[in-house]
Amino acid sequence: MINVFHIVSNKHWTGAEQYTYDLVALLRNDPDFYVEVVCRKHPNVLKQYRRLEIPVSILPLKGVTDIDSPVRFARLLRRGSNIIHVHSFRDAFMAVMARRISENRDTRVVVSVHGVYKPKSNYMYTKLYKSIDCFIFSSQMARDAFVGKAKKQYADRTVVLRDSVCDSQIGTHVPDLRRELGMDSHQALIMYHGKLVAEKGLDVLLSALTRVDKSMYHLVIIGDGQAKYKAKIKGFIVSNGLVNNVSLLGFRDNILEYLRQADFGVLPSVAPEALGITNLEYMMAGKAHICSDNGAQPEYVVNGENGLLVPPGDVDALATAINFLMNDSAARSRMGTKAKHDFETQLDYPNFYKKMTDLYRQLLVKEPVVDISPAIEQP
């Protein structure tokens, strides 16, 4: 049996936490693995993992200067074959130190890189990178951005394994949004879900909506984020007369049940997406969606086929795309059907899970790391 420890240290429930939740939900019932989550004492995160009825260890996880966490975590690593799967380089420092303290040579440190980063060149990080057994990137674009010109240094320890999503049924009852919002039958229910931060381009989306007929839509925003940015968004909504057209619902469980009620979704990121989990969720739900073309999205979104791609920060292009989907239900249906087909045939969760667990086994038998994610087929 392989012991798998997932370490997450965010205060809020983000994509990395959902990624871990879905993976742990399957690992806990797999006879080949023992799984445990290590996190900080934050109620919003703890309550989600505890629903899985798995062991959860609480540590300070304060970064490179935290001595207590690796000492305590090392006690869990003294026996057996271990995979420490971390989701930030901050937590990788703790993982590497704990492995060293445990003196267990059958322990591997794996980092899922949930973003687009260039490696830091200072001594501390250079040493950390050399101690990591495998870097997992969710797209070829994200891998290329990190590896860059230093291919000889990292290439033999990197894999591209595209994330996936599954229908995690957690939380409470999901309301009928159209009835709750008092929408007319001719109005399109547009949805944005994700972190409320500047990088996601929510202000671009709201600017685009000022150029759209207000009688034709209602935008639902699901997610939480920075207080200052949320205040800015609310101020824009009020000052531009969008109060009756935009609803901020905050963080919600059972996100797929909300997505299935939408006519289409929008993720107008202005910063490059390493993959764009939000887009995969729309595809899984069989919904047309609009997203930026500045990250890995073109690796699986084909413009006009299973979604629409627009330049990041381009308000006019986004308004045009919204108008198109808002007024053409047949196009929405066609794109949604194709998106669902592409997800189920190329991006589904069972395929992702098999590749991830195969990678765990591969690392422990000390075989060379190989790229395990084939290219997405293009029409």
How would you portray this structure in words?
- This protein has 379 residues and is an alpha/beta fold.
- It contains 15 helices and 13 strands.
- It has helices spanning 15-27, 43-50, 68-74, 89-102, 123-131, 140-147, 151-154, 177-181, 202-209, 227-239, 255-259, 277-284, 315-327, 329-346, 349-364; strands at 2-7, 33-39, 56-58, 81-86, 107-113, 134-137, 158-160, 188-193, 217-222, 246-250, 264-267, 288-292, 308-310.
- Strands 3-2-1-4-5-6-7 form a seven-stranded parallel sheet, sandwiched between helices.
- Helix 3 (68-74) packs across helix 4 (89-102), helix 9 packs across helix 13 (315-327) and helix 12 crosses helix 14 (329-346).
- The longest helix has 18 residues, at 329-346.
- The radius of gyration is 21 Å and the shape is elongated.
- It starts with a strand and ends in a 15-residue tail after the last helix.
Write a concise synopsis of the structure shown.
By secondary structure, this protein is α/β, with parallel strands linked by helices. It is 39% helix and 17% strand.
Helix fraction, binned, reads 25-40%
The count of DSSP E runs of length 2 or more, i.e. the number of strands, is 13
Provide a count of the helices: 15
| Class computed from helices, strands and strand pairing | alpha/beta
| Binned strand content | 15-25%
Largest sheet: 7 strands, parallel
Strands side by side in the biggest sheet: 3-2-1-4-5-6-7
Q: Kindly report the average pLDDT value.
A: 92
Give the C-alpha Rg: 21 Å
Order of helices and strands: EHEHEHEHEHEHHEHEHEHEHEHEEHHH
Uncertain regions spanning at least 5 consecutive residues = none
The global form is elongated
Distance between the termini: 42 Å
